[in-house]
What does this fold into?
Amino acid sequence: MRWSNELTLKTTLLLLLTNDLYYLPRSELSLGGGYSDLLFEIRPDKRQAPLYDLLFELKYLSLKDLKLSAEQLNELSREQLAELAPVKKLLDDAEVQLASYQPKLQQLFPAVEWQLKPFAVVSLGTKRLVWRDGCRAMLR
It folds into this structure.
């Protein structure tokens, strides 16, 4: 699609994942020099529930830039796609950004007991998603 980009992915995730009974969705939260793409913060009255604060760093890669057709894309597993150089680079970049957000969240909101579950997500056109969850840099 001609006008697809990271905003398309963000809007789709917001529509699909927003559950206002448990989460306060935040988009582009300023984190002292950076902006988190999406944060689903557990509502204060739901902190006792077995939930995670969900933090997403989103990237977009067009099929043209990936140099693959939709048919080729469908033939590869998510794991194989994650190993392609341009996809791996974007996942690595997203993971670095996610790692920088945890201390900033704790600094900006010291009263919150964060239960962060980070996700680095790369949209390959509008056809496929590749992600890493619980990014290594965020583990305690």
